[in-house]
Amino acid sequence: MLKFYFNGSPNPTKVALFLEEAGLAYEPVKIDTRKGEQFTPEYLKINPNAKVPAIDDNGTVVFDSNAILLYLAEKTGKFLPSNRAELLSWLMFVATGVGPYSGQAVHFKHFAPKDQNHDYAHNRYQYETDRHYQILDDHLKGRRYMVGGDYSIVDMALWGWARMVPFKLGDDAFARYPNVKRLFDEISARPAAARAIALKDKFTFKAEMDDEARANMFKHMTTKVA
Question: Confidence class of residue 223 from pLDDT cuts 50, 70 and 90?
Answer without folding.
Answer: confident
